[in-house]
Structures are given as structure tokens and as C-alpha cells.
Task: inverse folding
């Protein structure tokens, strides 16, 4: 049982950890000062690839191709990069105990890591159907997707059950991205979700109508307004069917479940102040305990633009919060301060040849514009959210880089609008002229 001390420890080895390590290297870190501890067996990578390119039937993305920081146009950081920088990458190591008072972490095998400064970057875990006691939910070939190991198991099953039937439980990000990529793998797909339309946390009914129509045209069946209440399996324990609350039974060779995530804060429970399900931080991602920072999915931080505390489960924020925390740590050491985090929420998704981006806040009245007919050869549409007479959010499907930049600027600048009908008629032109 070893005991090791580092000046800085990043707990977690995902997106935020990788971007934090790069920022440390940029700002200067001596060999042996920094460790990244991850329960995954691989160096930090761009997690969004797992539900997209990683599952393609041909030309699938594989490591080292998508290690951070390629996702935001930077250079890839393969494992050798950490060695060259003198950064210790402690992989396949799960931390099972964090003692914030004594500044020490204990791994599952009993190793102890002590630190001066800690960055908690443990991300999220999946909510499981077995958490709600759904009968038969532990059958084989029922998959969740969070880490590369999960994706590898899914890839093996896609090959083993070739051209089979897949039921996708959940109508959020995972549900929409996985249905599309499994369809590309020639699976017969049925999606099941309880709400009246997909992605209700972000999509309006008008936005959702386009994607549901598009998916239906691809042959994907959608069952709404009900949930999975049980699974049947054969003598080998392989899933064979999904039982729905409304009595229907769907045959299945593979089931993918995406019913939401939960931030991994258990290690620090009772030791750091929490808020809105995450670890509460200031605008520099420092928690209630000085010298302990939290970034990415686990952080509940002041979102300056809306003057409220928020938690964001998306990759852009994971990258930027990590950079902000490291800048703040380094500035503090030099007796300096940096600007407060001033984040504009940015979410995106890609499926089939579709690609959307959203910036800002999805509150207030909505205005749908453009061509959202799923039958169109080149559909292009969007939505604005208008609150207190100002545009506060904007969504665009199939935008060019310039157009996406324009909707981002609208959400940031929050221009006033008087007439929603006129905004609808102007559509994208409204954003382009800001
Ligand atoms: P992240 O989950 O990346 O990393 C956490 C790390 O901590 C993991 O390596 C984990 O193993 C490790 N860890 C946790 N507990 C530990 C412990 N006790 N000991 C050691 N290590 C521990 N977002 C987006 O904007 N666009 C997109 O297209 C996608 N696509 C997407 C696909 C899929 C499949 C997922 C699961 C998620 C996305 N996301 C996304 C969300 C995005 O990936 C997510 O917000 C970031 O990865 C969050 O970064 P973090 O570093 O906070 O957590
Ligand atoms: P989500 O919150 O986006 O969607 C969960 C969905 O589960 C809900 O919309 C609902 O339709 C459904 N649901 C809830 N209970 C259900 C039940 N009992 N039966 C059937 N359906 C049920 O979560 P997710 O799609 O699981 O994604 C997990 C995490 O990964 C999130 O943090 C998400 O932000 C992240 N992610 C993001 C992207 C992206 O940004 N493009 C892509 C993939 C994953």
C-alpha cells in the first residue's frame, strides 16, 4: 500500500480533467507536482464521441484518435503527453474515500494520495432502471453508456446480434443519438419515452416534431407516453423483450437505456457544501473548502449572465470550467485574481446528417422559424426564446459555422424584440444582423 503526495490532484480522468491538465501545462507545472487519478483505463478523451463516431458501422472512431483536446480544435493529448510533462496519470484507480479535512484520497486497493490542492472532476453516472426496481433490468444486453468500457460492450453486442432489434429507452440525448447510430448499424429500432415529445428539457413541441418526423422517415418507431416496467430474458439470461406500462411488449435483442445522469458527489458528501444536486462553487470553481475545486458536471456554479446558480452537464462547460479553475489556482499562487466565470450555455448534438446547436437559456415565449418539414431535402430551422422582451436563447438545425456564431451572439447580447410575428418572419436574418 503506497502513499504519495502531489501538489495538485485531479480526481477523475474525463473531459474536465484533460482540459485542466493542459491548462496546468500551459501555465507551468513542475514534474511530479500534478496527478490525474481515474477509474478508467485510458487517458482523458472526448466523451461525446462514444455515442456518435465510436459506434459507426464503418470507419469508427478509436483511441488514440479522440483523446482530449481535439474536440475543441486543440492538439490531442495521448498518454505520452502526460509523461513528457511529468504529469502522473494514475489509471484504473478508483478512489473510494475522500477525507477533505486531512487532504487525502484512498483508492480501492488501499493506496493513499495526499494533496495541497484538489480538483474534483468525477462527472456523472447513469441512472439505472434497477434503481427504480424495474423487473428483469439486470438481464444481459441491456446497456447504459457513460464510459469507454460501456461503449466496448455495446459494440460487441451490436456485432453479436447483427441486424437485430433494438429498443431504446429514453427520449433525451442518449435516446436520440443511440437510435440514430444503431439505425446506421441496420438495427430495427423502437424508442420508448414517457413524455409527449422527445428532449422535453430543451426542445419545444415544434422542434421535436421535426426530429420525430425525421426519425420516423428513417424507419425508427417511436412509442411515447409510457415507460418500460419489465424485461423478459431467455435461459441464457439474454434480454428478449421489453414490457411497457401500457401493456405492449416489444421484442428486443439489445436494449439501450438513457434515462438521465446523476452527478458523482458521493465521495465528498457532508464535507463540501452542495446545491442543486452538485458541489457548490464560486465563480472560480473553488468549493466551500479553500483549496478544493469542483469542475464539469459536478459543479453548481454562479451563472453570471442569469444571476443564478446552475449545474451544466455538457462538454463545453466541462472544458471551460476546468480551464477557469486552473487559471484561478495559478493566479492565487501569484497573489493575483482573474475575471469571474461568465458562461454562455452551449449545447449541441449530431445524429444522421443532422446537427444542431443551442445557446443561452430556454425560458419564456418561443418562436419557431424556417423550414422544419422533415420531408424537405434540406431542412433548416430554428427557434428563439424570448423573455421580458429580450431574446435569451437560440436554437438552429443545420447552421453554417457563421450562422451558429450568429445565434450564439444573439443569446449573449439579448437584443430586444417587440413583435414576435416579425421575429418569426425575419428568422435567421434577425440573428445574422446582430
Ligand atoms: P466525465 O464524465 O467526462 O469524467 C469523469 C471521470 O471521473 C471519468 O473518467 C470517471 O471514470 C472518473 N471518476 C468518477 N468517479 C471516480 C472515482 N471515484 N475515482 C476515480 N475516478 C473517478 N455533451 C455535449 O455537450 N455534447 C455531446 O455531444 C455530448 N455527448 C455525450 C455522449 C455521452 C455518451 C455522454 C456520456 C456524455 C455526453 N456529453 C455531451 C456530456 C459530456 O460528455 C459531459 O458533460 C462531460 O464529459 C463532463 O465532463 P466531466 O469531466 O465533468 O466528467
Ligand atoms: P437526458 O436527461 O437527456 O434524458 C433522459 C430522458 O429519459 C428523458 O427525456 C425521458 O425521456 C427519459 N426517461 C426518464 N425516465 C424514464 C423511464 N422510466 N423510462 C423511459 N424513459 C425515461 O439524459 P440521457 O439522455 O440519459 O443523457 C445522460 C447524460 O449524458 C446527460 O448528462 C446528458 O447531458 C449527457 N449527454 C449529452 C449529450 C449531448 O449534449 N449531445 C449526448 C449524450 C449524453
Result:
Amino acid at each position: 500500500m503506497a502513499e504519495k503526495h502531489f501538489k495538485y490532484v485531479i480526481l477523475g480522468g474525463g473531459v474536465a480533467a484533460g482540459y485542466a491538465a493542459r491548462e496546468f501545462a500551459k501555465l507551468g507545472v513542475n514534474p511530479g507536482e500534478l496527478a490525474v487519478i481515474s477509474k478508467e483505463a485510458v487517458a482523458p478523451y472526448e466523451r461525446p464521441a462514444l455515442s456518435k463516431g465510436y459506434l459507426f458501422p464503418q470507419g469508427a472512431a478509436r483511441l488514440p484518435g479522440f483523446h482530449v483536446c481535439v474536440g475543441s480544435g486543440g492538439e490531442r493529448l495521448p498518454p505520452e503527453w502526460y509523461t513528457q510533462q511529468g504529469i502522473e496519470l494514475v489509471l484504473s484507480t478508483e478512489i473510494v474515500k475522500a477525507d477533505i479535512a486531512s487532504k487525502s484520497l484512498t483508492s480501492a486497493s488501499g493506496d493513499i494520495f495526499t494533496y495541497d490542492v484538489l480538483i474534483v472532476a468525477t462527472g456523472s453516472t447513469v441512472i439505472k432502471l434497477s434503481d427504480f426496481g424495474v423487473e428483469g433490468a439486470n438481464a444481459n444486453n441491456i446497456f447504459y453508456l457513460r464510459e469507454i468500457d460501456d461503449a466496448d460492450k455495446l459494440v460487441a453486442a451490436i456485432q453479436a446480434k447483427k441486424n437485430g432489434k433494438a429498443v431504446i429507452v429514453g427520449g433525451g440525448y442518449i435516446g436520440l443519438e443511440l437510435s440514430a447510430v444503431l439505425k446506421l448499424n441496420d438495427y430495427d429500432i423502437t424508442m420508448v419515452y414517457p413524455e409527449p415529445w422527445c428532449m422535453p428539457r430543451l426542445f419545444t413541441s415544434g422542434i421535436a416534431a421535426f426530429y420525430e418526423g425525421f426519425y420516423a422517415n428513417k424507419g425508427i418507431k417511436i412509442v411515447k407516453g409510457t415507460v418500460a416496467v419489465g424485461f423478459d430474458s431467455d435461459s441464457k439470461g439474454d434480454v428478449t423483450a421489453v414490457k411497457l406500462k401500457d401493456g405492449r411488449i416489444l421484442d428486443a435483442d439489445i436494449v439501450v437505456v438513457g434515462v438521465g445522469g446523476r452527478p458523482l458527489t458521493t465521495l465528498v458528501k457532508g464535507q463540501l457544501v452542495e446545491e442543486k444536486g452538485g458541489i457548490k462553487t464560486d465563480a472560480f470553481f473553488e468549493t466551500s473548502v479553500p483549496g478544493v475545486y469542483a469542475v464539469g458536471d459536478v459543479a453548481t456554479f454562479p451563472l453570471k449572465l442569469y444571476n443564478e446558480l446552475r449545474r451544466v452537464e455538457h462538454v463545453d462547460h466541462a472544458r471551460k470550467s476546468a480551464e477557469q479553475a486552473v487559471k484561478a489556482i495559478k493566479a492565487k499562487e501569484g497573489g493575483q485574481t482573474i475575471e469571474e466565470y461568465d458562461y454562455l450555455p452551449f449545447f449541441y448534438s449530431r445524429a444522421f446528417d443532422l446537427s444542431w446547436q443551442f445557446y443561452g437559456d430556454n425560458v419564456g415565449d418561443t418562436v419557431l422559424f424556417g423550414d422544419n418539414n422533415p420531408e424537405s431535402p434540406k431542412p433548416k430551422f430554428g427557434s428563439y426564446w424570448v423573455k421580458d422582451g429580450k431574446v435569451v436563447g437560440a436554437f438552429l438545425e443545420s447552421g453554417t459555422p457563421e450562422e451558429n456564431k450568429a445565434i450564439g451572439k444573439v443569446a449573449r447580447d439579448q437584443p430586444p424584440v417587440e413583435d414576435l410575428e416579425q421575429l418569426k418572419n425575419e428568422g435567421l436574418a434577425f440573428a445574422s444582423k446582430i
